[in-house]
Specification:
Blueprint (H helix, E strand, L loop, with lengths): L2 H4 L5 H12 L2 E2 L11 H13 L11 H15 L9 E4 L2 H12 L5 E6 L5 H7 L3 E6 L9 H7 L4 E7 L11 H14 L2 E5 L25 E6 H5 L7 E4 L2 H11 L8 H11 L3 H24 L3 E3 L6 E5 L8 H12 L1 E2 L1 E2 L12 E5 L4 H11 L12
Parallel strand pairs: 1-11, 3-4, 3-5, 5-6, 6-7
Antiparallel strand pairs: 2-8, 7-8, 9-10, 10-13, 12-13
Length: 388
């Protein structure tokens, strides 16, 4: 067996979601909304199945969708992308990441990663033969530090993988942090693979800034987006890759032997959805912000210590004030004793993890959030939560 994959443990998402099902717990662990997504977008997909072409679409994606992607990012992020040579459709953002990493990493290349990190990054880097150089980011801000970057960037560095907004920390990098990273990329001639799937889900008046837009980064950045995150349709698995032509040609070479293409009905529906009005995207952010604030207020009333949530579907609690130094044990107690599933943030580190932060998903209905808070009400802040 391939040792990269044979030794991987079952993901924490599978473990916690399984416990939630078995125990009848409320699942605030895995990041998916509990509403069906925008009806007009779903209806477009249904109509395309019945009335459209269900044979192989082009490997790079339907021209209509590639054009819609370019227009969307021109409008929302002022990026000028050629839909013919700089845009590709993938079967989800994870496939986009796989295509990028497997095509751009040669054995022995060093790859800078930031933890907490999405759990697909490390296996993909290792499968490509890359040598991971990991920077551990720390709460509460999870920001970049020049000294830490200087320790991992060198003439051997080929790629840096950036997730911004960052899941699971629910943070958004500052303009200063992005400029710092761009300087290191240009200084060392490094390509940045930017996982920006949460770009539309930022709060409190913030606007997403793509690393591709910074000086010196246009031709050395691979930008990845996700229709699943934009429209709350996580099961659709429609992703986007945007990059300068030489980079995109290389990534397409891997893509053609991974999934080759993506369901045309979903591509047609996403093309329609990306053209929705600014009001749709503003209301989506406002809706998620209301859910964030509802869960945050309820947790604070019950004595939990919260970290700021600036984006994504998530917020984090600091369990150290409750006497816990083991987030895995805390989450086990949470689901078994109180019937609420959460995710320990230590699962997103490779070594020397943060062990006192727990992630909760607020992309749920008011009824679901209130039911979860009710289950915590008899124990939060009291002896029922104190570590032994």
């Amino acid at each position: 067996m391939n040792p990269v994959f044979a030794t991987l443990p079952t993901t924490i998402f599978t473990v916690m979601s399984g416990l939630a099902r078995d125990l009848g717990a409320i699942n605030l662990g895995q990041g998916f909304p509990d509403d069906p997504g925008p009806e007009d977008v779903r209806r477009r997909a249904a109509e395309a199945v019945l009335d459209g072409d269900n044979q192989y679409p082009p490997m790079l994606g339907l021209p209509a969708l590639r054009g819609a992607i370019a227009a969307h990012y021109r409008h929302h992020q002022a990026l000028d992308l050629d839909p013919q040579t700089e845009v590709m459709v993938t079967s989800g953002a994870t496939e986009a990441l796989a295509s990028a990493l497997l095509s751009l990493i040669a054995p022995g290349d060093e790859v800078v990663l930031f933890a907490p990190l999405y759990d697909a990054y490390l296996p993909l880097v290792r499968q490509a033969g890359g040598v991971p150089r990991i920077v551990n980011l720390r709460p509460p801000h999870f920001g970049l530090e020049e000294e830490a970057l200087a320790r991992v960037f060198s003439d051997r560095t080929k790629l840096v993988v950036l997730n911004n907004p960052l899941n699971p920390s629910a943070t958004v990098l500052s303009g200063e942090d992005l400029a710092l990273l761009a300087r290191f990329c240009t200084r060392h001639d490094v390509t940045a693979v930017c996982d920006e799937v949460w770009e539309h889900i930022v709060f409190d008046g913030a606007a997403h800034v793509p690393l591709m837009a910074l000086p010196g980064m246009r031709n050395r950045t691979v930008k990845i987006g996700s229709a699943g995150k934009i429209f709350g349709l996580t099961g659709w698995k429609v992703g986007f890759v945007m990059a300068a032509p030489p980079l995109l040609r290389a990534i397409a070479g891997a893509h053609q032997f991974l999934t080759f293409t993506t369901a045309p009905c979903l591509q047609e529906a996403v093309a329609y959805g990306l053209g929705k009005s600014d009001a749709y995207f503003s209301e989506m952010r406002a809706r998620f912000a209301r859910s964030r604030d509802r869960l945050s207020a309820g947790l604070a009333e019950r004595g939990f210590t919260l970290l700021q949530s600036a984006g994504t579907y998530f917020l984090n609690i600091d369990i150290a004030p409750l006497g816990f130094t083991d987030d895995v044990a805390f989450c086990d107690t949470l689901v078994r004793r109180h019937g609420v599933a959460a995710i320990p943030v230590s699962a997103f580190y490779d070594a020397d993890p943060v062990r006192h932060v727990v992630r909760l998903c607020f992309a749920k209905s008011d009824a679901t959030l209130d039911a979860a808070l009710d289950r915590l009400g008899d124990a939060a802040g009291g002896t029922g939560w104190r570590a032994a």
